[in-house]
């Protein structure tokens, strides 16, 4: 175990997350599957990285001044990251979120002191969409900046300069493949770009949930959604600024049921309590691993992102009633509850 010296600043706790070999997924893929433990960030998700990068960028550009406010539209995790970073730097936070996201995220944001604005979920073309609502609030609020995580490329820069080199160092300069889902696109694009700088042969794969349009875009050149998913914070129907130029080599589509299977197995067999986006990412990593093995790379190493903690979904993903309501399989240990 590597023991680091004390950090001098609490914001230094963001990033430098551990990585772990996942036994069950590695066996299923026939090669080594690694999960980067982004739930170890202070806000318990990968979105802490984007939150810090976006706020620092706004400061450097002179747009965010002492005592200012950061406004953002989010499925929850970016808002939590922004609230924590803003608290540490003396800013206020206004977060706009669809009202169908987990109760735990809403409660967490309120507990952190953020002003929470809930709006009905709707398509991006609707002016009432949470992204457009957050932009208008930022324009109407004195001293406010709009984080704009979807189209602010400070987001993906955080992964080019942070996540990618961490993965490269942790896996000793040998990563044969990387995959994750896209919400804003910052993680898949940024990590992909950072890894390609180091090894152009590293295969970058998009793992898309049903209901998102990117699988068809990268497979067939058409933004076309099929099916639906209950996963929060992933799935995209447009090419955001963060996704522009993303080095996607291949793509997989993963169902909620397959993602849930790995959420259940990782908890039951390996003691990791994760959200559905992590389960979908792991299923995608297994698919990528199998592809590489089929191509003769039997010693392949594939990395993915364990996005956030399952403790953020106790009232949804880990509720038997909620799973039944959504027509999804109930974890066996929840039967009877």
TrEMBL record:
Annotated protein name in UniProt: Cysteine synthase A
Keywords from the UniProt entry: Amino-acid biosynthesis, Pyridoxal phosphate, Transferase, Transit peptide
Cofactor: pyridoxal 5'-phosphate
CDD domains in the record: CBS_like (cd01561)
Domain Tryptophan synthase beta chain-like PALP: 12-308
UniProt keyword annotation of Transit peptide present: yes
GO process annotations (BP): cysteine biosynthetic process from serine
Pathway, per record: Amino-acid biosynthesis
Lineage: Bacteria, Pseudomonadati, Pseudomonadota, Alphaproteobacteria, Sphingomonadales
């Amino acid at each position: 175990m590597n023991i680091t010296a004390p950090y001098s600043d609490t914001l230094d706790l963001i990033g430098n997350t551990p990585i772990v070999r996942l036994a069950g997924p590695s066996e299923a893929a026939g090669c080594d599957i690694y999960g980067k433990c982004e739930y170890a960030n202070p806000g318990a998700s990968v979105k802490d990285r984007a939150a810090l990068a976006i706020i620092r960028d706004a400061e450097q550009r002179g747009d965010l001044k002492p005592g200012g406010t950061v406004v953002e539209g989010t499925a929850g995790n970016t808002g939590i990251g922004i609230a924590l970073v803003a608290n540490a730097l003396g800013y206020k936070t206004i977060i706009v979120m669809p009202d169908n996201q987990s109760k735990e995220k809403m409660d967490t944001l309120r507990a952190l002191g953020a002003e929470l604005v809930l709006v009905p979920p709707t398509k991006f073309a609707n002016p009432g969409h949470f992204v457009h609502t957050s932009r208008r609030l930022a324009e109407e609020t004195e001293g406010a900046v709009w984080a704009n995580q979807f189209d602010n490329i400070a987001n993906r820069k955080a992964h080019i300069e942070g996540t990618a080199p961490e993965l490269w160092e942790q896996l000793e300069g040998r990563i044969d493949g990387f995959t994750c889902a896209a919400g804003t696109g910052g993680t898949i694009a940024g990590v992909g770009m950072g890894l390609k700088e180091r090894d152009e042969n590293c295969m970058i794969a998009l793992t898309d949930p049903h209901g998102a349009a990117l699988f068809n875009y990268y497979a067939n050149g058409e933004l076309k959604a099929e099916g639906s998913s209950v996963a929060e914070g992933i799935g995209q129907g447009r090419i955001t600024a963060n996704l522009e130029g993303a080095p996607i080599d291949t793509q997989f589509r993963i169902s909620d049921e397959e993602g849930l299977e790995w959420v259940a197995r990782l908890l039951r067999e390996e003691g990791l309590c994760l959200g559905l986006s992590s389960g979908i990412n792991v299923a995608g990593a297994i698919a990528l691993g199998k592809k590489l093995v089929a191509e003769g790379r039997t010693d392949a190493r594939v990395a993915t992102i364990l996005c956030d903690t399952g403790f953020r979904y106790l009232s949804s993903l880990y509720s038997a009633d909620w799973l039944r309501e959504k027509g999804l399989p109930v974890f066996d240990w929840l039967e009877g509850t």
